[in-house]
Design goal:
By secondary structure, this protein is mostly helical. It has one domain. 74% of the residues lie in helices and 0% in strands. Helix 1 packs across helix 4, helix 2 (31-52) packs antiparallel against helix 6 and helix 5 runs parallel beside helix 7. The protein is globular, with a radius of gyration of 17 Å.
């Protein structure tokens, strides 16, 4: 992996850890609970991806990712004791984690020779499964399953754009940047304008 790619992954880990810590803080977990939830959010999706792709788990192969998650968690705990952290910080850090992790997962799958569909699936797993595990542990409906949330859809579209661009011969880093911006932009737009997918409802049964 390039140095730039590793730095982006570290930023994604830190951003996701902050988001996880804030979710745990809103539920008044103790410091150990906050660390667990932040860690699961930061490394959960990448761990599932690596196990499915039968490759070394990224944070075991390179402990700097775990260190980044712990450092971001500690910073959040200390900062939140002095200042109130707005809800939008949680939404923004979560969106940033989606963008960075989603494309990271797709890049890894493409690098291993998998086709575009698998790359998109791995992008979704990497980007959203940490948050899914976080929400399950916090006894919440996972964000990916909440009614109409424009969440995993942003990853699907951004990773599809990435796969399409590299298929057209665009340089990998440029295609990755376009995919990340697409995911981040779509997720933030969904938050600001409450963009939602149509909800599937069955008609009531006749009695």
């Amino acid at each position: 992996m390039s140095t730039l790619g590793q730095w982006l992954d570290l930023i994604g880990v830190a951003a996701s850890a902050v988001a996880g810590a804030l979710v745990a803080g809103r539920r008044q977990f103790d410091w150990l609970g906050v660390a667990v939830i932040a860690g699961v959010t930061a490394i959960g999706g990448g761990t599932v991806r690596d196990l499915l792709l039968d490759r070394p788990v990224f944070w075991i192969a390179n402990p700097s990712y775990l260190q980044a998650a712990l450092a971001a968690t500690a910073f959040t705990l200390l900062y939140a004791r002095r200042r109130r952290i707005p809800e939008r910080v949680l939404e923004t850090t979560d969106a940033l984690g989606l963008a960075l992790f989603g494309i990271a997962g797709a890049r890894i799958a493409v690098g291993l020779g998998h086709d575009g569909v698998i790359a998109v699936v791995m992008g979704v797993i990497t980007g959203s499964f940490g948050g899914l595990l976080r929400d399950v542990l916090c006894n919440d409906i996972p964000m990916i399953f909440r009614q109409g949330q424009f969440y995993a859809t942003a990853i699907i579209l951004g990773c599809s754009l990435y796969v399409l661009l590299i298929g057209q011969g665009l340089e990998t880093n440029l295609a990755a940047g376009a995919g990340m911006l697409a995911i981040l932009g779509l997720r933030i737009a969904a938050i600001v304008w409450n963009l939602r997918l149509p909800v599937f409802r069955l008609p009531p049964e006749d009695r």
